[in-house]
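Re: export button greyed out
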Amino acid sequence: MEQQLKELQTEALAKVEAAEDLKQLNDIRVAYVGKKGPITEVLKGMGKLSAEERPKMGALANEVRAAVASAIEAKQSALQQKAIQEQLEKETIDVTLPGRPVRTGNAHPLTKVVEEIEDLFISMGYSIAEGPEVETDYYNFEALNLPKGHPARDMQDSFYITEDILLRTHTSPVQARTMEKHEGRGPVKIICPGKVYRRDNDDATHSHQFTQIEGLAVDENISMGDLKGTLEVFAKKLFGEDREIRLRPSFFPFTEPSVEVDVSCMCGGKGCRICKETGWIEILGAGMVHPNVLEMAGFDSKKYTGFAFGMGPDRIAMLKYGIDDIRHFYTNDVRFLKQFSEHE
Amino acid sequence: MFVSYKWLSEYVDLDGMPSKELAEKITRSGIEVEGVDMLGAGIKGVVIGHVLEKEQHPNADKLNVCQVDIGEEEPVQIVCGAPNVDKGQKVAVAKVGAVLPGNFKIKKAKLRGEASNGMICSLQELGIESKLVAKEYSEGIFVFPNDVTPGEDALLQLNLDDEVLELGLTPNRSDCLSMIGVAYEVAAILDKEVKLPEIEVEEAAERTEDWIKVSIEAKEDNPIYIARIVKDVKIGPSPLWMQARLMAEGIRPHNNVVDITNYILLEYGQPLHAFDYDRLGSKEIVVRRAQDGEQFVTLDNAERTLSSEHLLITNGKEGVALAGVMGGANSEVEADTTRVLIESAYFNGQRVRQASKDHGLRSEASARFEKGVDPNRLQAAADRAAQLMAQYAGGQVLAGSVVAGEIDLEPKVVSVTLEKLNRVLGTNLQAAEVEDIFRRLKFEVKTDNEEFIVTVPTRRGDITIAEDLVEEVARLYGYDHLPTTVPVGATYPGGLTDYQEKRRTVRRFLEGAGFNQAITYTLTSEKKSQEYALESREPIKLAMPMSEEHAYLRLSIIPQLLGVVSYNNARQIDSLALYEVGSVFLKESGAELPTEEEHLAGAITGLWEENLWQGENKAADFFVAKGVLEGLFAKLGLLERVAFKKAEIAGMHPGRTAAIELDGQEIGFVGQVHPQQAKDLDIKETYLFELKLSPLFTAETEAVTYEPIPRFPSITRDIALVVDTNVEAGKLEEIIKEAGGKLLKDVRVFDLYEGEHIEAGKKSIAFSLKYFDPEKTLTDEEVVKVHDGVLEALKEKAGAELRS
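Workaround output, generated via the alternate export path:
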């Protein structure tokens, strides 16, 4: 009987060793280790054995069973390992092939500039005010201290629809309208972005339609120093911390005093083509709101002062991205539009 | 305004300050110097020559061989092609070795066999613009007056060693449209005195008033008119220095009398007109409005039709000058003129502006009248002109002036307090500092309890209110010295309105979905303005469009986007997804302004998904466009309230277009551009949408409230229905939802089939229905009961049979 058991063990182990897959292995398990297997069969002859030999044989049978079971287990784990290995090999891909594209689109560069400016001023407590693109002569000119026949109207040659209705030449009428709504009570802190129109022939630097963004702050005790400080924050945020601004006196009918504001050029003041060798780039016009404008909008100019500024996102985007032709903004060549992703 | 450095330094001591530095100082205190032009830059070796002999070139008809004394031991031989060269002339000679503008070097040469050692120069060859060269020399060389010496530096004689500052004047600073005005400005900047020209007129015994009478009928247009008369003048060239100054400042020399009026215009900013007294046709001047349709020939020999909006200087009968704009041909000063009437007047700016605009005649004179001249300089300008005509045209000045009308000569008094100055500027200036600035400006100032009472000279007509004084102080104090602060005081949170937030949401959604934002023109052609309009209205037209392409305000964005598609398709860019957010303009009868409606429009063409190596390309189609919009509506929390309904819209594919409704109101459409339209525009198959944004942004949406995560399983039933092909999926979905009631959680189409396995005229459409009860686990019986009801309703209302 001992002999039989040992032979069974050898035979089973050889089969386990030879098993090629999990199914064969399972068959071996059923065949040898199961309740109906040959080991059980052999043990059925135990009755013939002496009382001394019975436990010995019982123990031996258990040993054989355990040895076979453990061999099966080991083999099983090896086969599983192999199967995974094979699967992995089969599934291996070329990771350098391109990924599945996800479509992305971009904001228009002008929108990017406008939103950047909007967000900066929102963080300083400003709201965004909008108004009509078709305006009355009153809001576009007269309420801004540009009565009919004022020579400075020539600076803004306009598209009229009727004698009193025109396409706005700047977003300043939104300032006048917003101030009116405040009924003489400050503070007013707004940013007015939008499309504006002037009679210009379209060329590399002129466009009959362009974008403007203006700001207005009216309150008691707003000073020119506040204007300077605010614009300095703006210039550093938009163009870089190392940039400086300078104010040059100028003239706009709706502000007094009026200034033009230059930002130091990226050449660091050495002079380059962009700044025409001056070290400075003109970026906006500004000033203290003219008392006539305050009064017309219902504010007491003795009590309130305010500053206003205005700039052209078209020009700013051109400077910022080095764009050489303003018409690109309105042609919408996709090869142009795709260049302005969100990475900065 | 061009400013000659040398001329300016006659009025203000510039201490030899380099012109660039002066320019920077002027710019920083208020007047932008747009450029500094070095006259004679790049010119070397040009001297005065005396033409001793002139002979015809033996081998060339148009050339002359000249012997020219250039101040050296021997005369030099120069071959000259100028038609006006002649023996005895004093001319500019570029010697051998000289350099002319453009780095043109003069070398010894032989011209058709004759030696030529230098070149006799025209003014153009010395860098002067053709339009500034006096007519008599415009086709040839310039001839100097006889008092110059051979060998002298010709550049000095022509004032070409000067520098010219170009001032970019803002409309308020018309005071700097004169040399004296600029002198005051520069004197204030540099803290110097101003030296005014000394006027001494030697007068004859005859009195002007015996020669001319002046009356003004249009007193508002012409409050004052001063006339002086100079007799016995001899017309000839003006002195070389005067011609040189005029040219440096951009005015072409004519003759001594005309040049003197122009010189005074530059010096005082007061435009003068010189009439030939003998050609006036009467002994009186009457200033009146022109009659409508009145004809008048200006001195450029153009016949002009005037209107009652124009002011006319007449001889009592007919016009002799269009006031402030241009003189008449009938009374022009010519070579034989001997008696000159000088007009120095104040004309109303708007009147002059009207005439110069109507006749396209903008001149140095009209520009100054339009902005207002200094009334206190009228007499001085007339006197100074008379003085110079006596000096340089040999004339005799009649005694006195004839002055018609009157004008307020009193300077304005404007006050500002120290407190206001400091409050507006944010500074802490002291009274003495402010007073000093007014002193530099030559403004008389009295200080009373920290209030500055300033007498502003009439030359500074731009200063009328306290704020103007604040600006004067600020600009001369220097903006660099202002403090840098930010507003303090009550603060309110800034931010975007709900509408603005949602607009950004829409933009970000579309960009995330792969659309690029386009911005197109609002102005378009008549045809495009109305195509694809969501609401048909009469388009709004500009009164004076610059072109037919940009004459109307758009009623729809789509035509402009189609233009962009066409542009890109023409450049081999076949796959595009673009959107635009912008206004369209609806004319409202009765309202002053049109309604501006903000729209969202989009265009998709070509491949929507592109994955070449895996071969999984997906072309844009109706459902791509619709899917984007559904995603957008879901983002705005409105998907359940939006319906797509088959619609026919001009320019769109009639079988592939849907109107979009929000809560039953039409707000836009989506669909394929009509194949014929696509062909006409030469674009590929393109899908479009356009929506009104306001209804989407103003629709009340429910606040988000938490809904418990389902704890019980749901049961899904799939059904395949056979229906007539014209039965819409949307209709079936509607029936299912209605019959499914509360337990039906979700319905989706998951298959659509038409073809050989289905009866003709029928289609199979499969839905997946999900039943769910948040309270408990659903039993089969409960589901069967509802589901059978659904099937029954489908059969009854849409004739739908279950597909076997």
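The CA atoms of residues 16 and 72 of chain A lie 6 Å apart. The button fix ships in the next patch.
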